[in-house]
Amino acid sequence: MKQQQLIEQFYATHRLFLEYVNSLSPEAFMHTKSGKWNAGQQLSHIYLCLQPIAKALVSKDFLREKFGTLNRPLMDEAHVITRYKEALANGGKAPERFVPGAFNSEERDKATAETEQLLTGIGQLLQDYTEEELDTLVMPHPLLGPLSIREMMYLMTYHATHHQLQTEANLKS
């Protein structure tokens, strides 16, 4: 997938997630069962996961110096998603820094606006990367290890869908 399509797909899946959680009534937005995250916590988690990506993308030099370049063949989108699902199935969980705290429905508008700002910023930052840089510069992922920027964007694109599906399943239970 080329750069522009990657950015558009990344933004589109997050937009769908935001539209979904914002369409929920306050009761549904706060619904939780069996310790599962409510929609607000899912939204907060998405934001927490996007923050370090936005921060890292500001500097190609930082990425190159801190994490190096990819030293294996590039994974396609399906492979990245499969590896993520396997990691979760094997007990993988979000590290503490990505676990959302309590969230109330009054915070929804602010959290949505802040997430949209992050998404826009990430899209703008990605415009400055060449196709080669997307494939070679590395970012760490807590479950999957070093990923190229392109692979990270594949994962983060799916990540929004994953958390929307979790929210939907929580509401059906």
TrEMBL record:
<feature type="domain" description="DinB-like">
    <location>
        <begin position="9"/>
        <end position="166"/>
    </location>
</feature>
<dbReference type="InterPro" id="IPR024775">
    <property type="entry name" value="DinB-like"/>
</dbReference>
<protein>
    <submittedName>
        <fullName>DinB family protein</fullName>
    </submittedName>
</protein>
<dbReference type="InterPro" id="IPR034660">
    <property type="entry name" value="DinB/YfiT-like"/>
</dbReference>
<dbReference type="Pfam" id="PF12867">
    <property type="entry name" value="DinB_2"/>
</dbReference>
